[in-house]
Design brief:
By secondary structure, the chain is mostly beta strands. The protein is built from no helices and 6 strands.
Amino acid sequence: DGNWIWTLTETSVTSITGGAFFLSCTSDITTRSGSWTISGNQVTLYDGASNFNFTKDADQLTIIEGDDLPGFDSMVFER
């Protein structure tokens, strides 16, 4: 258990013709911090309001968002 902080550059997803999408970074930055716990391969980050549940596999953390495009189904962070 411990503390964490992340800084993310926000993204923009725009629908293009033919079922394609354009993904780009925006100038918006999100910073969050809080506490974390780990149990087996499950890592949970808590920012005081929400839990972010990741699965750890080797050098990757995966979080399932479950959104359809233009959202994200999952995000993978790799070391």
